[in-house]
């Protein structure tokens, strides 16, 4: 394993972290007597494999179902002073609520302290205002660090770059968890700003949210040759020194194997990925046209809704499906609409007729493609909408 200084935490962070989103058995209501032995054995083996590889940063969240509870026994296998554990707690109404949730997390993880603790989901202006109000959860986070129960503090976010930069500047954070990878480069200004503040930068889910690269489409697989798409994506992220670690949401011990191939190529990452990136970029231009590729999101804001529709994300999915045939990824993301709240704002498209009635062309005055967007969204609806089963 190779390591990078994780900003002002001064931790030497492995280039890959073991994320805890995919291996747990069930939701938050799962009890120990319902945990299947084979599932817990798999988690224990996954964490042991990570540590064996030098991946000594284990990351989870209070909101990841039974992940914390099941991670506790797996962590007990490891020497505490050689492993760095991070969990995340969602924005709470006040500091007392945050303290209570923290105690639950610590109990489930069977730890006396946490190496890193994040406010989870600083995704919108409302969440910023709630987190930083007097006696809010940011004050609780700072207090836990002062008490020595948490070594380093940060936040995670699915917000747009402006929101992320505002959150960075609002508090004395040491690191940030955010999304940035080949198919989603929108947050680069936030990555750069975090680096300017000497913060650690942790990339969330580059393989899953980065295009379901554990099971890439044939088109994307072909365009990334001779590398596997996960290896290309790892190198794309890690060739930037501002990026310190990538989350591998391992569901089994073997999920680390493909990623390890990136380590031997890192010293010549630019040379290796440049022709692949050129090929991927050109494929989108060939499919959608250079003008569209360069200007499709002009006048739109990531995760901002217009008439209840998250147009930026809908067009982003349309681009990926048309170019790289990522329909499965598109459906996975589209199905969150209507239930994602501030994590994934927007409603699903209600139908072609309803879409046309919105007169979006009149409501997108700063878009050079206002007259085309409705047609793109119609096709997105036809591609991703699942008819009701009667």
Write out key terms for the chains shown:
single chain, 390 residues, alpha/beta, TIM Barrel, 2 domains, two-stranded antiparallel ribbon, 17 helices, 43% helix
Write the layout of secondary structure elements.
Layout: E1 3-5, E2 12-14, E3 16-19, H1 37-52, E4 57-59, H2 67-75, E5 84-90, H3 95-109, E6 114-120, H4 125-131, H5 137-146, E7 150-156, H6 161-170, E8 175-178, H7 188-196, E9 200-203, H8 218-223, H9 229-238, E10 245-248, H10 257-260, H11 269-288, H12 290-295, H13 311-324, H14 327-334, H15 352-357, H16 360-363, H17 370-384
Parallel strand pairs: 3-4, 3-10, 4-5, 5-6, 6-7, 7-8, 8-9, 9-10
Antiparallel strand pairs: 1-2
Helix pairs in contact: 1-2, 2-3, 3-5, 6-7, 9-11, 11-13, 13-14, 13-17
Overview of the structural elements:
- This protein is of the alpha/beta class.
- It has 2 domains: 265 residues, NADP-dependent oxidoreductase domain (TIM Barrel, Alpha-Beta Barrel); 96 residues, no CATH class.
- Helices cover 43% and strands 12% of the residues.
- The protein is built from 17 helices and 10 strands.
- The strands form 2 sheets. An 8-stranded parallel beta barrel has the order 3-4-5-6-7-8-9-10, surrounded by 5 helices.
- α6 runs parallel beside α7.
- The mean pLDDT is 95.
